[in-house]
């Protein structure tokens, strides 16, 4: 495997895990709040999770680099302000 493909592979695996876990937890909480717990709760939750994950995975892949750039820009602002004091 080429060394240049490792960062991209890591990014995709991270996105898979992050989007899966976040969508699982968020869909569970929202399903619980909206419908409560009954005999069909798990079915509703898993159905909601699958939809959420299909949406979340590409968003994490494309949004993570933007969030990283925004983080760097924010940190530069703080560094600039700290150096002025």
Task: Describe the 3D structure.
The structure is a single chain. With 85 residues, this protein is an all-alpha fold. The chain has 2 helices and no strands. It has helices at 5-35, 41-84. Helix 1 packs across helix 2 (41-84). It is flat. The N and C termini lie far apart (48 Å). The mean pLDDT is 91.
Short account of what is shown:
This protein is mainly alpha-helical and 85 residues long. The protein is built from two helices and no strands.
Give unreliable regions as ranges: none
What average pLDDT do the residues reach? Answer: 91
Largest beta-sheet characterization: none
Straight-line N-to-C gap: 48 Å
Q: What is the β-strand count?
A: 0
Put simply, the count of helices is 2
Query: Would you list the SSEs in sequence order as H and E?
Result: HH
Helix proportion range: over 70%
């Amino acid at each position: 495997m080429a060394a240049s493909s490792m960062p991209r592979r890591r990014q995709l695996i991270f996105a898979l895990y992050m989007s899966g876990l976040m969508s699982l937890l968020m869909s569970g909480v929202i399903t619980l709040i909206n419908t409560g717990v009954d005999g069909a709760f798990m079915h509703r939750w898993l159905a909601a999770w699958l939809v959420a994950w299909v949406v979340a995975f590409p968003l994490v892949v494309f949004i993570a680099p933007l969030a990283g750039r925004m983080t760097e820009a924010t940190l530069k602002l703080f560094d600039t302000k700290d150096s002025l004091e």
